[in-house]
TrEMBL record:
<keyword id="KW-0804">Transcription</keyword>
<dbReference type="Pfam" id="PF08281">
    <property type="entry name" value="Sigma70_r4_2"/>
</dbReference>
<dbReference type="InterPro" id="IPR013324">
    <property type="entry name" value="RNA_pol_sigma_r3/r4-like"/>
</dbReference>
<feature type="domain" description="RNA polymerase sigma factor 70 region 4 type 2">
    <location>
        <begin position="114"/>
        <end position="164"/>
    </location>
</feature>
<feature type="domain" description="RNA polymerase sigma-70 region 2">
    <location>
        <begin position="20"/>
        <end position="87"/>
    </location>
</feature>
<dbReference type="InterPro" id="IPR036388">
    <property type="entry name" value="WH-like_DNA-bd_sf"/>
</dbReference>
<dbReference type="InterPro" id="IPR007627">
    <property type="entry name" value="RNA_pol_sigma70_r2"/>
</dbReference>
<dbReference type="InterPro" id="IPR039425">
    <property type="entry name" value="RNA_pol_sigma-70-like"/>
</dbReference>
<dbReference type="InterPro" id="IPR013249">
    <property type="entry name" value="RNA_pol_sigma70_r4_t2"/>
</dbReference>
<dbReference type="InterPro" id="IPR014284">
    <property type="entry name" value="RNA_pol_sigma-70_dom"/>
</dbReference>
<comment type="similarity">
    <text>Belongs to the sigma-70 factor family. ECF subfamily.</text>
</comment>
<protein>
    <submittedName>
        <fullName>RNA polymerase sigma factor SigY</fullName>
    </submittedName>
</protein>
<dbReference type="InterPro" id="IPR013325">
    <property type="entry name" value="RNA_pol_sigma_r2"/>
</dbReference>
<keyword id="KW-0805">Transcription regulation</keyword>
<keyword id="KW-0731">Sigma factor</keyword>
<dbReference type="Pfam" id="PF04542">
    <property type="entry name" value="Sigma70_r2"/>
</dbReference>
Length: 172
């Protein structure tokens, strides 16, 4: 069904495009939320991502999976959004604590340690680590999504994982 919807969407069928975006909304939302750690920002970036997908559907060439194309748009949208915003570190910490308190009864304590360690990683490490180890993308795919070289992605994943291990060992 998705292949037919993709063809129709690329040819201007708005209903097919709407179905595709609805099918992928949760996937994109979860990815962005894991990347940024801010639920409201994740909703905003996801909405912006879907709007860009609507505007650029004619540019989708089918050389990668549709989900990969959306992740690429989401990644760039997030990076652009972060460049435009100057977030106050104290407000970010308060938001994280609020989210932690809301979901404490649903998730094991270790999840919060790992998620906090991820959020504390610089974006240049966090994004490649998430894409590689959580979503299973290949290094070359990540390089394409982040407009980086494959060697740079490998290095950032490696150093990001080292930083995560170090932080988790210090607090564990």
């Amino acid at each position: 069904m998705e292949a037919n919807d993709l063809t129709r969407a690329r040819n201007g069928d708005e209903e097919s495009l709407a179905r595709l975006l609805k099918e992928h909304y949760s996937f994109v939302m979860k990815y962005v939320w894991k990347m940024c750690g801010d639920e409201q920002l994740a909703y905003d970036v996801t909405q912006d991502t879907l709007m860009k997908a609507v505007q650029k559907i004619d540019q989708y060439r089918g050389t990668s999976k549709f989900s990969t194309w959306l992740i690429r748009i989401a990644t760039h949208t997030y990076i652009d959004t972060r460049r435009k915003q100057k977030r106050n570190e104290r407000l970010e910490q308060q938001e994280r604590e609020r989210l932690k308190q809301q979901t404490t009864h649903q998730l094991p304590e270790e999840w919060f340690d790992v998620q906090e360690a991820l959020w504390n990683l610089e974006e240049k490490y966090r994004i490649p680590v998430l894409l590689k180890h959580y979503y299973g993308f290949e290094y070359r795919e990540i390089a394409d999504m982040t407009k980086s070289r494959t060697g740079t992605v490998k290095s950032r994943v490696h150093y990001g994982m080292e930083k995560l291990r170090k932080e988790l060992n210090e607090h564990g």
